[in-house]
Structure formats: C-alpha cells, structure tokens
Amino acid sequence: MIDELPLWLAILVSVCVVVGAGLTMAGCLGLVRFPDFYRRIHAPTMGTSMGGGLILLASAIFFTVTEQRLVIHELVIFLFVTVTTPVTLMLLARATLFRDRIEEARETEDGSRQ
Amino acid sequence: MKRLLPYPVLAALLLLMWLVLQQSIGLGQILLGGAVAVAAALAASAILPGRVRFRGLTSLLQLVAVAGIDIIRSNIAVLLILINPRAEPSAGFIKMELQLTNQFGLAVLACLLTATPGSAWLEYDGEHNTVLIHVLDLADKDEWIATVRHRYERLLLEIFQ
Lengths: 114, 161
Known about the structure:
The structure holds 2 protein chains of 2 kinds.
Chain A: H1 7-33, H2 37-40, H3 45-66, H4 73-113
Chain B: H1 8-22, H2 27-45, H3 57-83, E1 92-97, H4 103-115, E2 119-125, E3 130-135, H5 141-160
Antiparallel strand pairs in B: 1-3, 2-3
Helix pairs in contact in B: 1-2, 3-5, 4-5
C-alpha cells in the first residue's frame, strides 16, 4: 500500500474519471434532448460503453498501483454491463415496436373506414 | 466425469470469475468457487442451446480490437451530435439479412451493436434470419449494411461457424 500517487499517474486517473463521467453525463442529457424513443435509446449507451469503461479503467489503474497488486475485477463489471444491456434494450424496443405496429394498423383501419 | 462436468470450459471460466471477484487465490476460495462453478455449469446445461464451437483466436482478438475502436469512434460521433444544437440526425431503421445463424454468434453481434452508441439491435427474426437495427445517424443504408458485414459478421462467422 502506498499513500501518494505519482503526479503523472494522478493526472492519468483523473482524466479517465472526468472524461468517463462527462460522457455518461452527456448521454443522460441526450436522453432528455432527443425527440423520440428510438433516438433516445442511443444516448445512455455512451454511459454503459466508453463512459463506464473509462471510470472502471481509472479504478483498475488506481487500485493496482496503490495496493501494489493486479486489480482487474473491473473487467468483470464491464463484461456484465455489456452483456446485460441488450437484454433490457430488446425488451423495451420490442414493446415499443409492438405498440407502434398496433397503432399504425389501427390508424390505417380508421382511415379506410372514413 | 462427463456427467458432473458437461461444460468444463464454462466451469473453468466461472471459477476464474469467482476468484477475480473475491480477489483471492486461497485454497478455501478455490474449493468454494469450484463447487459453485460446477453447480452453475450443471444448471446451465439445462438451458444452453448447444455447445459453443469456438475457433479462430486471431479472429477473436481482431474482433475485440475492431469493437474497441468502433465504440470509441461512435462515442465521439454521438457526442458531437449531442453538443451541436442544430444537429438533425437522420435516424432510421435498417432491416438486414444475416448469414450468421449460430446463436452465440448472434448474441455477440447483438451485444456489439448495442454497446456501440448510435446503433441498436431491436428485433431478430429467426425464420427469415433478418435483424432490425436502429441507427441514430443514418447517412447511407447500404454502406452501413456493408460495414456490419465486413467488420463484424465476417469475423463472427470465422469464430463460430
């Protein structure tokens, strides 16, 4: 265990954390800014891919150096996030597709009646 | 042995994950993790669609590199769209036919496309082997399909089929 980080390493870790957090923040803002569901699903992905990845990388570097042993369980977190995101995404997307298709069918039905 | 360990590689990976998460390679953790791994692999054999036939380590490494580069590139692309107040991304759907039929390969492709900001895997049709993808900034449909084919599908075919 060492108490003080070398300067270059402190800068590297800080840059990773700040850029990662910034990307995640931008993704969350995108969720608000984009106009419809299908465009909105793209924004939070920034947080689960590169945003989260950079924060986890910073964590791995920081603890590997300060505890002077290899700390890589952040890799497992990244893998789990990457593997589980499509599951929830597909659930939401298919529900929306289903609803849209029904509404579309209903609208054309109404149109043909008038 | 075969009945106790139907998926030795899966069990080994689970044990490895257990040890990484526990951050210890003590005998106690190896025994406990080993028991959990064997039990989990047995349970998985009831739901897994089949054995993963896995080859082409260089293709796998190439895929990891390609995916890493694409994730960084598309993060920047989506960020640029977000911070530009006048950007009007021409979002659109793509329905593309896949040659890949292996279920594990399809799962990896779904993870890759979803993990890349700017593209999302929405719906897979197993009967026609087509997939519906939503793209945030769709400039050229055919170019996009060609990119998926050449960058990802080709490598996945080499690895899984």
